[in-house]
From TrEMBL:
The chain crosses the membrane at residues 19-36, 42-59, 66-88, 94-111, 123-142, 148-168, 189-208, 214-233. It is a multi-pass membrane protein. GO terms for cellular component: plasma membrane. The keyword Metal-binding does not apply. Belongs to the CDS family. PANTHER family: PHOSPHATIDATE CYTIDYLYLTRANSFERASE (PTHR46382). GO terms for biological process: CDP-diacylglycerol biosynthetic process. Its main location: membrane. It is found in: Cell membrane. This is Unannotated protein. The lineage of its organism: unclassified sequences, metagenomes, ecological metagenomes. Keywords: Cell membrane, Lipid biosynthesis, Lipid metabolism, Membrane, Nucleotidyltransferase, Phospholipid biosynthesis, Phospholipid metabolism, Transferase, Transmembrane, Transmembrane helix. GO terms for molecular function: phosphatidate cytidylyltransferase activity.
Length: 286
């Protein structure tokens, strides 16, 4: 038992995360997503909205610590509006709601005066696009009749990327991937995530999506690139603001933003890929 504890402590020290709580939280989140999609899919849209609202609050705290004050309640309202518009109006609803929300945010900043207007407006625009807009593609994945299969395939892809980048990085990592941004990420971890995400994507597309395995392999490649980029971008934000985690809501992960970072960038890519495949199949090209 002491040996197991020692191994766990060594992994925690190497990875910078507590392994067992992280696994427990991940399993809970997967079950929550599955339950929402297998009952009433609109519940999943509500969960995405809640996660984004919490993410906005974490981002607001981080910005406030460096003297940037984004309009929290305006962004929260915009989040609810974008999510509802996406669920009921699809990609057109998401686009129009974003186009309306952006100028509204700027107008609502005018009463604050001109001091730091550019800084605040830029941070507000980043928050709007980074969180509710990109998260809207999670809702788009869940909207069709096969939303459960699409989202669970996405969970497999992102899960493989995050899990095997973590494991191979801990076990074999020696060469930093981006030392100035995220010192614990390694090239070995990236190679591991690439290999296992391609395999996981192939299996998920074959068994869950009932589609060609090679499409899943391509989706795996796309997911590794986008999810890793999203992770590094959030790391760059945190390093610039001199914080380790955006929050502490999720044991072993940090805050909501620390869990959403890779998801937010991978979701639009997978949605677009599935749309291209669907239209190619409808036209007889596949």
């Amino acid at each position: 038992m002491s040996d197991l504890h020692s191994i766990n402590e060594a992994i925690n020290k190497r990875a910078g995360r507590k392994l067992l709580p992280s696994i427990g939280v991940s399993i809970f989140l997967v079950l929550l997503v599955w339950f929402s999609l297998s009952t009433f899919r609109i519940i999943f849209a509500g969960l995405v909205t809640l996660a984004v609202v919490l993410g906005i609050r974490e981002l607001n705290r981080a910005f406030t610590a460096v003297g940037i004050h984004i309009p929290l309640w305006s962004l929260t309202t915009a989040t609810v509006a974008l999510s509802a518009a996406t669920w009921f109006g699809g990609v057109s609803g998401l686009a129009v709601a974003t186009a309306i929300s952006f100028p509204c945010l700027l107008v609502l900043l005018l009463p604050r005066g001109v001091e730091n207007f550019v800084k605040t407006a830029s941070a507000s625009a980043l928050s709007l696009i980074y969180l509710p807009f990109l998260a809207g593609f999670l809702i788009l994945l869940a909207r069709p009749h096969n939303g459960l299969a699409r989202v669970m395939t996405f969970v497999v892809l992102v899960g493989c990327n995050d899990t095997f980048a973590y494991l191979t990085g801990v076990l074999f990592g020696k060469h930093p991937l981006a030392p100035k941004i995220s010192p614990k990420k390694t090239i070995e971890g990236l190679v591991g995530s690439l290999l296992f995400t391609v395999i996981g994507g192939s299996l998920a597309f074959h068994f869950i999506m009932d589609s060609d395995w090679w499409l899943g392999a391509l989706a795996g490649l796309l997911t590794v690139f986008t999810a890793t980029s999203g992770d590094l971008i959030e790391s760059a934000l945190k390093r610039d603001m001199a914080i380790k985690d955006m929050g502490n809501l999720l044991p072993g992960h940090g805050g909501i933003m620390d869990r959403l970072d890779s998801v937010l960038f991978a979701a639009p890519a997978l949605w677009l890929a599935l749309e291209i495949v669907r239209r190619a199949q409808d036209s007889g090209l596949l």
